[in-house]
Amino acid sequence: MASVETAAEHERILREIESTDPNCIGPTLRSVYDGQEHGLFMEKLDVRIRNHDREIEKMCNHHFQGFVDSITELLKVRGEAQKLKSQVTETNKRLQDDGKELIGSMEELKQCRVQQRNISTTIDKLSHCLPVLETYGRLQEQMRAKRYYPALRTLEQLELTCLPRAGQYRFCSIMADNIPKLRSHIRDTAMTQLRDFLESIRKHSDKIGETAIKQAQVQRSLDSSVPTQPRALIGRRSRREASAATGVEDDTQGGSPMSEKDSGILDVEEEDEDDEVPGAHDLVDFSPVYRCLHIYTVLGLRDTFENYYRKQRRKQARLVLQPHSNMHETLEGYRRYFNQIVGFFVVEDHILHTTQGLVNRAYVEELWELALSKIVAALRTHSSYCDDPDLVLDLKNLIVLFADTLQGYGFPVSQLFDMLLEMREQYGEILLKRWNITFRQVLDQDNYSPIPVSTEQEYRQYTSQFPLQDPELEKLPFPKKLPFSEFVPKVYCQIKEFIYACLKYSEDLHLSSTEVDDMIRKSTNLLLTRTLSHCLQYAIKKKNVGLAELVQVIINTTHLEQSCHFLEEFISNITNVPPDTVNAAKLYGTSTFKDARHAAEAEIYTSLNAKIDQFLQLADYNWLVAVQGGGTLAASDYLVDLIAFLNSTFAVFTNLPGTPVEHATLPGKVAQTACMSACKHISTSLMQLLLDPEIRQISIGALQQLQTDVIECESFASAGPVAGFQGDTLLLAFSDLRQLLDLFTQWDWSTYLADYGKPTCKYLRVNPHNALALLEKMKEMGRRSTVFQFRKTDRDRQKLIDTIIKQLRNLITQHHT
């Protein structure tokens, strides 16, 4: 059993040896040597080898003839192959000999093709690199020339077009790395130029505004003959402005839209020789603004730039709108203030119309509204300090020119004209103050004497100053006197000057003729009713004014009153408004001069009475004097002097106006009133002196002396010191005193007591109270006499007086009841 297994194992091993790769036979052989049947295996192996040899031999025997035939044919082929080899070798030799030249040519051709390919590659690369270098070179040149907007365009072309085409080169990488730095440099430089520009126009806004205002003046002078353009105050448009307005720069020329001057203010010496006023665009180089705007637009930072520009301009606006503290002192201060504001808004208007959206209309209008409120507030404040009408008038003209200038640029200025109408009231008050001083000077310097004229020339000179219409005076020969004093023509001329001053302020305020006329009339009424009236009252009321001066004041005011309708015509002529226009204000000159005349008349009466009082203070009656036995009594010295004074005074009243005029007094009425007032005052003063409570005793002798003085006064009244009194009218002033003295001197008490209260009573004007008071003083005098003298007649008289006193008291009681 074991031998059979061993034989089977050996058979398997042999098959493995036959079928396995020789390189892998090791493990199989090892299994043979590991076993103990090595000899047996070797025998099996020899048997297998012999079997294979017998098979090989059989196969060789089977194919041997074919092999022999093949060898024979092969030997035949060898000879032919030798011949062919010789022919091929010979042909190859000939071919080699013939191909050496061709190979050389082919090598040369190959080399040429390589060079050509290299050249083509180089040309292609250079065609992409040269534009980069050229563009970068142009960029550097533009940067050196400070033409930043073209440089930014070139930088954009370099980054987006040239560098991507060039490929990956070191110099391209360097350039690409420098591009952000160049952009930052351009942006910062443009912003620096913009700051310089803003600072420059801030400093030179005064000059810009002055030029714009001059241009407005020139345009306004041409408006009457030349039709205005829509924006009349915009000067001629230069090519520089046109190119700036488009916002496009010529890259082919490498230029910027305007001059590269960064100061912002150009030299205007190159202006045309026609002396045309340059416009704002001729003075200001706006290229920094346009350049910076374009640069920030390209960089995608337009909003940032707009916000920065508007913020800075708002700050500048606040500075410009802040007036100097002493601006109100001189007109130059106001002019500089207005020039700066005009310069600011002229620049903004130009920016508005030459850029697309940097500033818009809403922004400019907002700035103008802010400015307008501050301007009006500043002018109201500073103009209130002004007390010079000439300065106010110049300021008004400056404000009008300022408003017209900005209105030409499209800014609403109605508030400025409303403020000018407010200033008109202030101007009127200042004028009134000045004319108050002028009127007082005229009144103080006047001599209050009729004006003497010796020649026709002098006469015409005065009548040209004052509308005197007196045919009787013109017929008189020279020399002659005008009825009024110097202050009449002077006051009349000053009133006309005041009207002219009011008219000057109303010019260019866009008011209708009716409004101007109304304004002038109201101002003139204030001048007449307030200023001139106060001055006349001052002249009348001041100390040391004599009666002659007061009389002349009455004459002067009468003539001024007559001239009022000439002033009405004068105002109508200069305003072209008929005086009979509906709602037209009337001058109050008539009432003003009438009031002044009445005040002068009252002052005459008051002054005359005061003078009379001075004489009456000299009265020194002896109230206890006894009755003189014989002869006539003489009037008191003080009364004689008083009557002499009155006679000389009333002689002056012959110069009072005697021609009836509208609203004037009747002829001689002032003199008559003064004379009547003087007589009444004398009578009343003597009555008060007689009834003075401090005088406790009065004798009949004193009453007789007083009666003598009254007779002297009645003589004066009867002599007619002033013409025009009818009958004994003037004597009525002394009737109360006369009847009282007659009652006591004639001792006619029975008649008085019997007829008291009847219209036919002889002593109708005797007041029982006055009679009782005087009787009490006589009773006291009688009582004093009876103490020392015990005559029966005196005692009887004293009893009579007591009886009359009782009757008078009963009469007073009954009358009172």
Question: Can you describe this structure?
Answer:
By secondary structure, the chain is mainly α. Among the domains are: 6-62; 169-221 and 281-411, no CATH class; 428-449 and 485-606, Exocyst complex subunit Sec15 C-terminal domain, N-terminal subdomain (Tetracycline Repressor, domain 2); 622-767, Up-down Bundle (Methane Monooxygenase Hydroxylase, Chain G, domain 1), CATH 1.20.58. Helices cover 72% and strands 1% of the residues. It has a two-stranded antiparallel sheet. Helix 10 runs antiparallel to helix 11 (361-383).
Structural class: mainly alpha
Question: What is the topology, as strand order, of the major beta sheet?
Answer: 1-2
Helix content: over 70%
Q: Report the C-alpha radius of gyration, rounded.
A: 68 Å
- Report strand %: under 5%
Number of helices: 27
Order of helices and strands, N to C? HHHHHHHHHHHHHEHHEHHHHHHHHHHHH
Question: What is the first-to-last residue Cα distance?
Answer: 201 Å
Instruction: Return residue spans where pLDDT drops below 50 for at least 5 consecutive residues.
Output: 224-275, 657-667
Shape: rod-shaped
The averaged pLDDT comes out at 80
Task: Summarize the main sheet.
Answer: 2 strands, antiparallel
Number of strands: 2
Short key terms for the protein model shown above:
27 helices, mainly alpha, Tetracycline Repressor, domain 2, rod-shaped, 817 residues, two-stranded antiparallel ribbon, single chain, exocytosis
Task: Give a concise summary.
The protein is mainly α and about 800 residues long. It has helices spanning about 1-20, 25-35, 40-145, 150-165, 170-220, 240-245, 280-285, 285-300, 300-320, 330-355, 360-385, 390-410, 415-445, 455-465, 470-475, 485-505, 515-540, 545-560, 565-575, 590-615, 635-650, 670-690, 700-720, 735-745, 750-755, 770-790, 790-815; strands at about 450-455, 480.
